[in-house]
Design a protein that fits this description.
Helices cover about 0% and strands about 45% of the residues. By secondary structure, it is mainly beta. A hairpin with a 4-residue loop joins strand 10 (about 95-100) and strand 11 (about 105). Residues about 35-40 have low confidence and may be disordered.
């Protein structure tokens, strides 16, 4: 995933084994390092990045969360989790991170994180916020929605396929998953499967 700083025009993308790249134009990219305990970089994989309230937040394996004001210098946020975070987004004044076995955490400023109640043990892989609702998707066709990012409601996806990512554009939510599964929704609640 690539995230853009809405104020200064900085793009940030993340990946396996701590890969973190930044760009000011989307064409030329620079490798950045996350510093932890005097060791350059991190061997933890980073799965998602978002931007809100003037900071970037990236999440990854073994409960790792890092924040940055400029996309270049990063700080570790310590959580007591060994489970991985797979997705993160910003909306309604809060950051929401989702992950393995239904893991959900929220933060108002990215520094301190509190657990949410997902009501599922399925892995949550992707999350987005639009139209005043958070939508997260995951394994076994799991789709959950929330207004505040704390308590979540299960929605009927109509599929048992693993859903890997969700986004919003042109007035609709779209989630994609294994075996070319594509679902769309106008409100995040009712979903329709599309032919791929």
């Amino acid at each position: 995933k690539i995230e853009k700083d809405k104020t200064d025009g900085m793009f940030v993308t993340v990946g396996n084994r701590g890969t973190l790249l930044t760009s000011t134009n989307g064409t030329l990219w620079n490798q950045r390092n996350i510093w932890t305990r005097k060791i350059q970089g991190t061997i933890k994989s980073l799965f998602a990045v978002t931007y809100g309230k003037g900071i970037f937040v990236t999440v990854g394996s073994f409960g790792s969360i890092f924040t940055s004001k400029n996309g270049i210098n990063w700080k570790t946020r310590k959580l007591r989790y060994s489970k991985s975070f797979y997705g993160v987004t910003y909306g309604n004044g809060i950051f929401v991170a989702v992950g393995k076995d239904g893991l959900i955490n929220t933060s108002t400023h990215g520094n301190y994180w509190s657990p949410g109640i997902s009501g599922t043990k399925d892995n949550l892989m992707g999350i987005t916020y639009e139209k005043s609702v958070f939508v997260t998707v995951g394994s076994g066709g799991t789709i959950l929605t929330s207004k505040l990012g704390v308590s979540w409601t299960q929605r009927n996806s109509g599929t048992l396929m693993n859903l890997e990512e969700v986004t919003y554009g042109n007035g609709i939510f779209v989630t994609v998953g294994e075996k070319r599964t594509i679902l769309t929704s106008s409100n995040g609640i009712s979903w329709i499967e599309k032919n791929s």
